[in-house]
Write a structure and sequence with these properties.
Two copies of one chain form a homodimer. Chain A is α/β, with parallel strands linked by helices and 217 residues long. In chain A, 42% of the residues lie in helices and 17% in strands. Chain A has eight helices and nine strands. The first copy, chain A, has a seven-stranded mixed beta sheet with strand order 5-6-4-3-7-8-9. In chain A, β7, α7 and β8 form a beta-alpha-beta unit. Chain A is globular, with a radius of gyration of 20 Å. At the A-B interface, α1, α5, β9 and α8 of A face α1, α5, β9 and α8 of B. The first copy, chain A, binds a DNA duplex (24 and 24 nucleotides) through α3.
DNA sequence: TAGATTGTTAATCGATTAACAATC
DNA sequence: TAGATTGTTAATCGATTAACAATC
């Protein structure tokens, strides 16, 4: 009987999580929804609702235990257990992702990288072996991997995505700025850097235009 | 008398733009809002409203000229003129951004990179010089740069952001997973990779849980 | 007890979608 | 003319916010 979870809520949860980890490092063991709200510029009701989605429970007058909240969010996002992933496209961005420590905190483990450039194949980057893209099917047969990360140029993304789907990949994290056309049962999440930049550019343009206060957000 | 532009619209505009550039490469010169909608899985009314925001005008029965639409969106986002930026934090991600060709299409030009690691200072990565972070103020005095990109680890992001603001930076593109606390007149856009991953993780968890069809999105 | 906090129910607001008039 | 398309106005839907009851 779970409620549907809005994507807005899902996008906020990691912010709470990183904030809570920060508190934990400072040695704080309790936190109220109101303080989270203040520190992260969110409405306190919003924080309460978001946290409630994860099943977290607080104690009136006391608040939440930081460790409980962290575990609750991690469990909810499935970030407590390790999820293995393939990455295709070992360019600058792909290489950066291979070395991205922060993924450990999300349970994401890139266990192999693929590229079709012979110059890249055979190397190990940040401890991850780079294999020939043609080996994707055979490696997939040995390892049941469900997540595929696409960091190839836009024009190759669709082809790579189709290969991934053939190899049993069920969820694709797509960093290429193209719309992938795949069977509906495949989960596709587009990492749209340009969307974020668009907001920045537009706000800056408005600000420079003389502060006609067209508030956005 | 402009309407306020919703951030949802701003986030969609780059998707239209990349799609239109693809059409242009294929040599197509006209396009209807309905076809954009079909190809990008958006409602056609939505496409029309979004495009109307940019000032684009179509012709009934004919549609839009691809080149007009492209220019209209680019102008609206201020992606037609070059915007100079500083980048601080030349780790994997920072390096990747320095080599990111796609930025050219958004008018973003990173003209200098900074790091406090002496091993990195002095190099030129993808044609961009890496300078000591301490030189940020002096370089800023010579060059009027308005955009700052933060790719340092979370614990240093706030400090770097404050330095940037002191140097006249007016808009910050923050890749660190922390909430920056800055004067309200500074534009901050957080590039939340983890937010995107959270959606992917949760959808996959649900799918694997047996497809109790809690549709999200 | 009073105050601080949780968590829920109701109200508001804004974005999306549907319906439709205008037009080449 | 009829059909395809644009662009706008009205309706719906869902997310956010406000109000409030519950509680340690």
């Amino acid at each position: 009987m779970d409620k549907e979870i809005s994507s807005a809520t899902l996008r906020r949860l990691p912010r709470y999580l990183f904030y809570l980890r920060g508190l934990q490092q400072k040695g704080e063991d309790r936190i109220s929804a109101s303080r989270i709200a203040d520190d992260l510029d969110v409405q306190h009701t919003q924080v309460r609702k978001d946290l409630a989605c994860t099943g977290a429970e607080g104690v009136p007058k006391v608040g939440h235990l930081v460790t409980d909240l962290i575990r609750s969010i991690e469990d909810f996002l499935n970030w407590n257990c390790s999820s293995e992933a393939f990455l295709v496209g070992v360019g600058h961005l792909g290489t950066a992702l291979l070395g991205f420590k922060a993924f450990e905190e999300t349970g994401l483990r890139i266990i192999a990288a693929f590229d079709s450039d012979p110059k890249k194949v055979g190397k190990a980057l940040h401890g991850v072996e780079v294999l020939d893209l043609q080996k994707l099917p055979s490696v997939s047969r040995k390892k049941r991997v469900r997540i595929g990360i696409i960091t190839v140029p836009g024009e190759h993304a669709q082809g790579v995505a189709e290969k991934m789907v053939k190899c049993g990949i069920q969820a694709i994290w797509n960093f290429a700025p193209v719309q992938l056309d795949l069977p509906p049962e495949v989960i596709v999440e587009n990492m749209e850097m340009q969307a974020s930049l668009a907001l920045l550019s537009f706000k800056l343009k408005q600000k420079l235009a003389g502060g006609k206060n067209q508030a956005i957000d």
